[in-house]
Design goal:
The chain is α/β, with parallel strands linked by helices. It has helices spanning 39-45, 94-97, 129-132, 142-146, 151-161, 178-187, 202-210, 223-230, 246-255, 276-279, 296-304, 323-331, 333-336, and strands spanning 2-8, 11-16, 28-36, 56-57, 62-69, 81-84, 123-126, 133-135, 170-174, 194-199, 215-218, 236-241, 256-264, 285-287, 314-318, 340-343. The strands form three sheets. Strands 3, 5, 6, 7, 8, 15 and 16 form a seven-stranded mixed β-sheet that branches. Helix 9 (246-255) links the parallel strand 12 (236-241) and strand 13 (256-264). Residues 1-21 are annotated as: Disordered.
């Protein structure tokens, strides 16, 4: 089969690799129909995730068909169409028993495309299949489903739920990339008074408007002043950090009101300053987190009911064999307008992210 193989920082290729097979009785082998590329994959290619060894197939999100299962797998069987979760759960360790699957100590957590071969291939072996793949209803398309493997659970759990969004809140989302946009979409499920999107790219701010942001702000033009103006000087009830750089984290702590929540979703590669000299007196709660995907069944039900605009984030589609081109488009999002790049399944024209 073919797979997208990491060979070291700046080096990867779509090439021949051995077919996966069942290694443990809890494994399933899935034929990959649809995959997507994550910003974390770009971090790996930059050398920011040293645990990924050269020779590893990248990717941790997929939709496909089960072709083989181990003797202990009970919830899926060959022929089932499934969502492959970005998080693998052993189901037995302390953290899995508490629903914190991302912290699994029994051989799971974020392992696909990280510690073991991932989903950007024609076939993938999924450990602990009973808890790590989800049967898909026929009403959920591949494009919708693949975005529920990572970005929607991440935005919903680490951003919206950790941030404790409530009806009537003012929610500011800093960073209108795919996860930030998913945070806007899922925050609106809780009927906030307003959602404010902050980003540098006009196309992404336009996408945020389409997904329900009532106000948008250019990150380079004092967005904290806009938040203050809209809230009578109080600040936002919830601020979601969805970029992962020190400047945006510190911006979030300046925009939150006393007693509010800062929910950090962004993946940080550099230290950020925590200004406790200002924050200690404000009763502010700051949360961090790796997605656990405990919400995936709920999100799948909402997608089946037409309540999640998941595939609206898809801007480019490619066949699997054009993986290298898809990476290039996704890596240069400022020039290409890419939000989510999806590979496999029926191909279509590029969807514009700006208004006509």
């Amino acid at each position: 089969m073919k797979g997208y193989v990491f060979h070291g920082p700046g080096q990867a290729a779509w090439e021949d690799v051995p077919d996966p097979d069942v290694q443990e009785p809890t494994d399933a082998v899935v034929r990959v129909d649809t995959v997507t590329i994550c910003g974390t994959d770009l971090h790996i290619l930059k050398g920011d995730v040293p645990e990924v060894r050269p020779g590893t197939i990248l990717g941790h999100e997929a939709v496909g068909e089960v072709v083989e299962v181990g003797a202990d797998v009970r919830t899926v069987r060959p022929g089932d169409r499934v969502l492959v979760s970005c998080i693998t759960s052993c189901g037995r360790c302390r953290f899995c028993r508490e629903g914190m699957y991302g912290q699994c100590r029994g051989g799971g957590g974020w392992i696909l495309g990280h510690l073991v071969d991932g989903t950007q291939a024609e076939y993938v072996r999924v450990p602990f299949a009973d808890l790590s793949v989800h049967p898909l209803p026929a009403s959920v398309t591949n494009e919708d489903a693949v975005l529920l493997a990572d970005i929607f659970p991440t935005a919903y759990e680490v951003g919206v739920l950790n941030g404790r969004v409530r009806p009537g809140d003012t929610v500011a989302v800093v960073g209108a990339g795919p996860v930030g946009l998913a945070a806007i979409a899922t925050a609106r499920l809780f009927a906030p008074e307003r959602v404010i999107a902050v980003d540098l790219a006009p196309a992404r701010l336009e996408a945020a408007r389409k997904l329900g942001a009532e106000a948008v702000a250019d990150a380079g033009e004092a967005p904290e002043q806009l938040v203050a103006d809209l809230t009578g000087g109080l600040g936002a009830d919830v601020v979601v950090e969805a970029v992962g750089v020190p400047e945006t984290f510190e911006l979030c702590t300046r925009m939150v009101r006393p007693g509010g929540h800062v929910a950090n979703v962004g993946v940080h590669g550099r230290p950020a300053t925590l200004h406790l000299e200002d924050l200690w007196i404000k009763n502010v709660t700051i949360t961090t987190g790796l997605v656990d995907t405990h919400s995936t069944p709920t999100l799948l039900r909402m997608a089946a009911a037409g309540r999640l605009p998941a595939s609206q984030l898809v801007t480019h589609t490619f066949p699997l064999e054009r993986m290298e081109e898809a990476y290039d488009v996704f890596a240069h999002a400022a020039e290409t307008g890419a939000l989510k790049v999806v590979l496999g399944g029926p191909q279509r024209e590029v969807v514009p992210v700006t208004a006509p």
